[in-house]
Amino acid sequence: MPEARQPQLASTPIASRPQESPLALDGFCPVTLAENEDWLQGDPLWGAVHRGRTYLFTSQRHQQTFMAAPDRYSPMLSGYDPVRYIDRGELVPGVRKHGMWFGVKMYLFSDEASLQRFSGSQESCQYYAERAHAIMMRAGR
């Protein structure tokens, strides 16, 4: 496999105006999703930017919860497709439609084929999850 460039991932969250970076999770609140498995639309009033993505929250409390531990609530690799990156070195955004939880992390995939490759077996899930985690650590997580 050719040497792939590392995704550009900031090491700390930055509070900012939501329109300055791509919207994560289609604007749904990552805190209510992680804590309650509830897809609630966030409010631009409570936006924050983390690793180049804008997250919206249902309340200031959820925004503060996220900012205290943003990697806990944000998708692995900032929502980029881990299969496409690990297998091909391509930095392709994942989509909510093709997402899944593995362990305590959310993974987003660009298409059904990547999702199936990741979730084909416990071994493949573990393979991609370990490599995605290593990439995050090298990027200064």
Describe the protein in words.
With 141 residues, the protein is α+β, with helices and mostly antiparallel strands. It folds into two domains: 18-70, no CATH class; 76-138, no CATH class. It is built from six helices and four strands. It has helices at 30-36, 60-68, 70-73, 82-88, 112-119, 122-138; strands at residues 43-50, 53-57, 95-102, 105-109. The chain has a two-stranded antiparallel ribbon. Strands 3-4 form a two-stranded antiparallel sheet. A hairpin with a 2-residue loop joins strand 1 (43-50) and strand 2. The longest helix has 17 residues, at 122-138. It is globular and about 40 Å long. The relative contact order is 0.17. Residues 1-18 have low confidence and may be disordered.
Topology at a glance:
Elements (H helix, E strand, L loop, with lengths): L29 H7 L6 E8 L2 E5 L2 H9 L1 H4 L8 H7 L6 E8 L2 E5 L2 H8 L2 H17 L3
Antiparallel strand pairs: 1-2, 3-4
- What portion of the residues fall into strands of 2 or more residues? 15-25%
Cα Rg: 14 Å
Q: Describe the main β-sheet briefly.
A: 2 strands, antiparallel
What's the total number of strands? 4
Total count of helical runs of at least 4 residues: 6
List the strand order in the largest sheet.
1-2
Mean pLDDT: 86
SSE series: HEEHHHEEHH
Which structural category do the helix and sheet elements fall into?
alpha+beta
Shape call: globular
The first-to-last residue Cα distance is 24 Å
Q: Level of helix content?
A: 25-40%
- Give the domain tally: 2
Low-confidence stretches: 1-18
